[in-house]
User: Which sequence fits this backbone?
């Protein structure tokens, strides 16, 4: 490998992207690379929000410290961010690059777009996490198995250096589970060939917008006032891994679910039954736990 | 009051779904019920906190009442200004609210808060207490309880929690109350009561935080309930200097079989994993003493 190999991670807050990107940097260092970087990009730290993380890996020290705009590899940790954003994840991805995707819970292959000449690898990281119970505070740490998938796809780091990096990053109890997830994902990762129409010309990278020069106060934009709206950051229903389903036979219309819903995503219909707004329900399971008659069940989300 | 009954009078939602709060956020649940009690004639001032994030980015907002984001230390000062401005315009029916986190209340905002309390400015201050700086990724605040893990206290905090509600009561303001997001009806009724009183009012709400306290998102309500049922968190009001226990806390004093050992509250959360059995026993002892004292104080003046 010549020059700098750049990686961009896509996922959501709480899925371990920042940790995985750090572990990848350590593993690459263990592998013998001298210039390694791990860069988180998060804004306000919050679970469920779309976040990115970056890596730079090189045989010589890397002096560039910016975000990665033209990656050699893109790792998509959470498949739900692909819908409506197919070009967003491959922006700037190089022609001979790697696209590594978690294809859990929904058949996203038709949604995929890849630049011509790019190799696409898939693995079901969500199932691996569920099977190994790799969770932190109720959220699957999807980025850990994706490390194994990345290693398989690019061949840049070996499983051995990943294991060493993981062992130095967690407490003894967590090490075993994380290593098992990485190895399992390494074994299950496979290369796929997309349909010809899914290969698109490379998408140009997005660069930060230039701030316009302001010479006089009359050039200033009007006072920004936000308008109240549902879905102020989009359809938060995409965050769910499980959906609550109300059994109307058992429901006594006590409305505890409505009262305790942190999202205000439970409405009450004309006959007094609670009704869940699946566009915005984040799947936190509070209603499931609070229902006195156990009329709410959590069903795994399959789209 | 039952949930079904309360739905008749408070079905309107002012916190709209699809906001950017975490799954199982206790703070949005509390804000939902505060706004249900206050209605749409409300202006909110929000110093830097999680609130500034989950309300959303320009050009959209998840709140359907006027809302101003303010610098960390200046929430009460901005609220005082708004109160003054509304006063000059002769608008008497608008409630001004400051909605701040525990860092903005107990650490950074405490001086302007104390100033506005001393002036008895006509507004309601809500502190939603998730016991650390959660918006920036769990750093210790003055309100973090002893023993809790945060990123800046990796071995557990050594110092104990600052009692903001008592500090505010010592300002001799007309109304001070504590509540918890797991008791929406208690919070709703206290807010309604506060709305009718003039002068400075202070309500301190304990809100469990799944990512910061390290528990499953679905347990938000259960953990808050454990905090109250174990006596770790007391629900009370201080009206004109007289201390009154609220029904959920009085219940555990009157019928001890309804009390939960504090161990259950501690063990349910990952942030207390560094606490050993001996420390739990000490904590239980402290809580027993606290409850004994609270039972004696009920209905008595808090200060001389």
Assistant:
């Amino acid at each position: 490998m010549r020059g700098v190999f750049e990686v961009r991670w896509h996922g959501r807050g709480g899925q371990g992207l920042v940790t995985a990107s750090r572990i990848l940097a350590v593993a690459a260092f263990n592998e013998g690379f001298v210039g390694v970087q791990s860069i988180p990009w998060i804004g306000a730290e919050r679970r469920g929000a779309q976040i990115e993380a970056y890596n730079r890996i090189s045989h010589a020290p890397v002096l560039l410290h910016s975000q990665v705009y033209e990656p050699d590899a893109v790792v998509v940790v959470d498949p739900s961010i692909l819908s409506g954003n197919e070009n967003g994840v491959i922006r700037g991805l190089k022609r001979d690059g790697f696209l590594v995707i978690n294809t859990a819970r929904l058949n996203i292959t038709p949604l995929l777009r890849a630049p011509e000449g790019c190799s696409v690898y898939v693995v079901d990281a969500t199932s691996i996490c569920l099977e190994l119970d790799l969770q932190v505070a109720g959220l699957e740490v999807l980025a850990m198995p994706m490390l194994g998938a990345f290693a398989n796809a690019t061949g840049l780091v070996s499983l051995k250096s990943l294991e060493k990096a993981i062992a130095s990053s967690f407490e003894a109890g967590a090490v075993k589970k994380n290593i098992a997830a990485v190895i399992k994902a390494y074994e299950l990762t496979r290369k796929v060939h997309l349909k010809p129409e899914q290969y698109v010309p490379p998408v140009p990278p997005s660069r930060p917008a230039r701030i316009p020069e302001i010479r006089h106060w009359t050039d200033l934009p009007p006072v920004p006032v936000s308008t109240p709206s549902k879905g102020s950051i989009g359809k938060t229903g995409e965050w769910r891994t499980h959906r609550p389903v109300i059994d109307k036979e058992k429901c006594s219309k006590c409305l505890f679910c409505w009262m305790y819903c942190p999202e205000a995503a439970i409405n009450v219909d004309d006959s007094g039954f609670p009704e869940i707004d699946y566009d915005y329900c984040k799947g936190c399971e509070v209603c499931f736990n609070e229902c006195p008659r156990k009329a709410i069940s959590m069903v795994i989300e399959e789209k | 009051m039952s949930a079904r009954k309360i739905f008749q009078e408070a079905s309107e939602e002012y916190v709209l779904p699809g906001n950017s709060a975490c799954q199982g956020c206790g703070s949005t649940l509390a804000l939902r019920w505060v706004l249900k009690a206050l209605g749409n004639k409300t202006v909110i001032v929000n110093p830097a906190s999680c609130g500034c994030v989950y309300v959303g980015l320009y050009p959209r907002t998840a709140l359907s009442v006027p809302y101003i984001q303010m610098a960390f230390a200046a929430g009460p000062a901005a609220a005082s200004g708004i109160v003054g401005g509304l006063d000059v315009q002769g608008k008497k029916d608008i409630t001004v609210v400051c909605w701040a986190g525990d860092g903005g209340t107990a650490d950074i905002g405490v001086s302007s808060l104390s100033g506005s309390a001393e002036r008895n400015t006509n507004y309601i201050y809500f502190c939603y207490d998730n016991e650390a700086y959660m918006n920036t990724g769990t750093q210790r605040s003055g309100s973090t309880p002893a023993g809790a893990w945060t990123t800046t206290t990796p071995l557990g905090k050594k110092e104990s929690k600052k009692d903001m509600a008592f500090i505010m009561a010592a300002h001799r303001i007309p109304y001070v109350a504590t509540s918890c997001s797991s008791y929406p009806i208690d919070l709703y009724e206290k807010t309604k009561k506060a709305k009718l009183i003039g002068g400075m009012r202070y309500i301190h709400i304990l809100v469990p935080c799944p990512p910061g306290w390290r528990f499953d998102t679905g347990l938000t309500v259960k953990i808050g309930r454990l905090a109250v049922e174990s006596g770790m968190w007391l629900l009370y009001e201080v009206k004109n200097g007289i201390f009154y226990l609220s029904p959920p806390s009085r219940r555990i004093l009157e019928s001890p079989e309804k009390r939960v050992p504090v161990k259950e509250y501690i063990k349910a959360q990952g942030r207390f994993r560094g606490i050993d059995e001996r420390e739990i026993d000490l904590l239980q002892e402290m809580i027993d003493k606290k409850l004994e004292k609270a039972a004696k104080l009920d209905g008595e003046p808090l200060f001389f």
The first helix of chain B runs from residue 3 to 9. The domain at 14-301 of chain B is CATH 3.40.50.970 (Rossmann fold). Chain B touches chain A through 53 residues (CB under 8 Å). Residues 42 and 95 of chain B are 5 Å apart (CA to CA).
